[in-house]
Every structure is written in structure tokens, then in C-alpha cells.
Design goal:
The protein folds into two domains: about 5-240, L-fuculose-1-phosphate Aldolase, CATH 3.40.225.10; about 240-310, no CATH class. It is an alpha+beta fold. Mean pLDDT is about 85; it is low at about 1-5, about 235-250 and about 305-310. Helix 5 links the parallel strand 6 (about 135) and strand 7 (about 160-165). The protein has twelve helices and eight strands. The protein is about 50% helix and about 10% strand. An eight-stranded mixed sheet has the order 4-3-2-1-5-8-7-6, sandwiched between helices.
Length: about 300
């Protein structure tokens, strides 16, 4: 019996793409008829999922072959290519180094965008090394031309793109590589959501982030560093975390700062005590609420101060 490598390249590509589609469905990265997948074949043409295809039941003959001008080359089952084939083609033209394009609708990733949570919180070393910094584009509505323009622009330097309230795009040297990134993206999103619910985030130290980025550039293709640059997670590392301000200021040894904080906190605590709402709170809850309100007030003050002085 011949191995997969000994088979006709067309058959090999169709089997490979079918496997990735079914894996994505089983992992919950797509549901129903959403999402679209493609790979660049040895002959330079694109093998892509057909329009309105159910990825969990897709068959090898369902995939449509098109060229880089979106001309139909072959369709064994007589199906039409995905309505988003133009985005796939544009990506392959823009990035000669990629041979697979996967557009998924992962539940946890979409939840992050709906909640307004930044995915690029550096908390998981594997995500920093394997995915790098993830690009994010705002939802353009039903405007396919705008979605194409935004997606291709984001893919110029990134291999992973999150589409606001819509899904994600991952690309790679082969279908498995692109799928792995999609799976890791969803795993990271799940950890982020759980962390926000349970205890908040513990960000990796900036020095370690730098080492992880250097390791990423070392183990992957030599043009990666040149393409994406070295300023990964720069904005995240410099982001001022309002929710940590209370703790940070109390860590300061300045008696003046402590007095100001204590005074504001005491005023708020007294205000809480004099509300009917406080009757339903325990002493610990009241203390926690007063601290959170103090943090919010100081955050607003510092935010306005920063704007005035910037």
C-alpha cells in the first residue's frame, strides 16, 4: 500500500485539508457552515473549502481548486469556492512564505473581543513563542472589501489575526502549522477568560518577555525578526494597570501617600456605611468595595492628570 507521500499531490492535499477541517470542527473552532480553509498546492494553485460547507462532514471531493486570479480550475463535486476566497488569494500573494490560511470562529476568542479583553496580555510563555503578538482588527460590518484590506494589512507582519466579534485568521507554512496556531489561540483565550474570572492576571516580567521573544526569533525562520520587529508586547508592558494602583501606592513607603489614600478610603467607607445597600454587605465586602471605589477615583484623577500633562 502506498504511503501518503507516494500518492498523487492533489490527493494528498485534499486529504490534508479534510483532516484539518474535521479537527477544527471537533475542537469547536468552527460550527455550522462558518469558517473557511485553504492551502497552496505544489502547482501554485489554491485548494479551498466550498461555499456554505459544513466542516465536520466535508469530503475530499468537495474542495475547489482555483488559481491566484480566482479562476475556477476544478471542482469534482460541482461546488463553488468560498465567498471569502479573495482574502485567501490576497494573503498568498502578500506572503509567499505561507501555504495555508485558516479562518475560524473560536468561541473563547470571540468572547474576549465581546468583553473588550486584550488578548496580548503576556501570561503564557508558549503563546509568546509560538504566536508572537496577535494583530487585532475592528469589525468592518458586511463590507468584504474593507475586511480584506484590514486582514491583509494585519497579516503583513503577523501570523495570527483576531477579527473583532467575528473570529480569527491564522496562517502557516502548511495546514498543520496554521491549525496549531488556531488551536493555541483558543487555548490561550480560555486561560485568559478563566484568569479574569477567578483571580486576575499575573503578567510575565518584562525581562522574561524579552528572552521569550529572542527565543522565538531564534527557533523560527530567519526573516521572522525582520518581518515582525522586536517591539512585541511593548504597549502591554507599558500599560498602566488601574486595578493595581491601590496596591502599588500602598507599597510606597511615603507617609504622605499613605495618608492621602487612607483619608480617601475612610471617606468612601463612611459613605458606604450610610447607605441602605451596606446592610447587605459583610465587613469584608464593605472594605473591598471602599478600596475599589478609591482605586477608581484615583484612576480617574490620574487619567485626567496624565491627559493634561501629555
Amino acid at each position: 500500500m502506498s504511503t501518503l507521500l507516494e500518492q498523487d499531490p492533489q490527493i494528498k492535499h485534499r486529504k490534508e485539508l479534510k483532516t484539518i477541517c474535521q479537527l477544527a470542527y471537533e475542537k469547536g473552532l468552527v460550527s455550522g457552515f462558518n469558517g473557511n480553509f485553504s492551502l497552496r498546492m505544489n502547482n501554485g494553485n489554491i485548494l479551498i473549502t466550498p461555499k456554505s460547507s459544513y466542516k465536520g462532514l466535508i469530503q475530499e471531493d468537495d474542495f475547489v481548486e482555483i488559481d491566484l486570479n480566482e479562476n475556477l480550475i476544478s471542482s469534482p463535486s460541482g461546488l463553488l469556492p468560498s465567498t471569502e476566497s479573495s482574502i485567501h488569494v490576497a494573503a498568498y500573494k502578500k506572503r509567499p512564505d505561507i501555504n495555508a490560511f485558516i479562518h475560524t470562529h473560536p468561541q473563547k476568542v470571540i468572547s474576549l473581543t465581546v468583553c473588550g479583553i486584550d488578548f496580548n496580555e503576556p501570561i503564557i510563555p508558549d503563546s509568546i513563542i509560538q504566536l508572537g503578538e496577535v494583530a487585532f482588527i475592528s469589525y468592518p460590518g458586511p463590507d468584504m472589501e474593507e475586511e480584506l484590506k484590514l486582514t491583509i494589512s494585519a497579516l503583513e507582519k503577523r501570523d495570527v489575526v483576531i477579527l473583532d466579534k467575528h473570529g480569527a485568521v491564522t496562517v502557516g507554512k502548511n495546514a498543520l502549522s496554521a491549525f496549531y496556531k488556531a488551536e493555541l489561540l483558543e487555548h490561550t483565550a480560555e486561560v485568559l477568560l478563566d484568569a479574569h474570572i477567578v483571580c486576575g492576571l499575573k503578567i510575565i516580567e518584562p525581562e522574561l518577555i524579552e528572552k521569550l521573544i529572542q527565543h522565538r526569533h531564534k527557533i523560527y525562520e530567519k526573516d521572522l525578526k525582520e518581518r515582525e520587529g522586536t517591539e512585541l508586547f511593548k504597549n502591554v508592558k507599558q500599560t498602566f494597570k488601574i486595578k493595581n494602583i491601590f496596591k502599588k501606592l500602598f507599597e510606597n513607603n511615603s507617609p504622605v501617600i499613605q495618608r492621602v489614600l487612607n483619608l480617601v478610603n475612610d471617606i468612601i467607607h463612611i459613605a458606604i456605611q450610610n447607605t441602605k445597600y451596606s446592610e447587605r454587605l459583610s465587613s469584608e465586602d464593605k472594605e473591598q468595595l471602599s478600596r475599589e471605589l478609591t482605586t477608581s477615583i484615583l484612576g480617574i484623577f490620574l487619567g485626567r492628570f496624565t491627559k493634561k500633562t501629555s
